[in-house]
Amino acid sequence: MSDPNCIFCKIASKQIPSTLLYEDDLVVAFKDIAPQVPVHVLIVPKAHVSGLDGLREEHKALIGQITLVGQKLARDLGVAESGYRMVVNSGPDAGQTVFHLHFHLLGGAPMGGKMV
Ligand code: AMP
Ligand code: ZN
Fold it and tell me: Which of 13, 31, 32, 49 to mutate to test the pocket of ligand 1 (most atoms within 8 A of CB)?
């Protein structure tokens, strides 16, 4: 459930500090260390999942919870009205660099038009 070499496992278990914004039984959310926009939060399962490709049937509730936490944080951080994105990079072509599933919550400034 936890990978001793994984930086987000260490953040989730508080072995490495982060600016924690939310925590429950399933997920933690913390500020990205290199924000791309004014609001840049990572929403991460506490259990180690490598990424979108590592998801299984048993993770359905987890994914539901991550999206609802994203909605709550967008409201709490004041970007629900102005708009926000939740983005997951999966694999090399998408530029994934940390291989523990994380949803980027992005907002607080125009993001240069549509991604897709
Ligand atoms: P990705 O490129 O989609 O895998 O995203 C990885 C994200 O993790 C990047 O936006 C990094 O800035 C962020 N990141 C890496 N290390 C840390 C850390 N220790 N605390 C917070 N965010 C981090
Ligand atoms: Zn991990």
Answer: 32
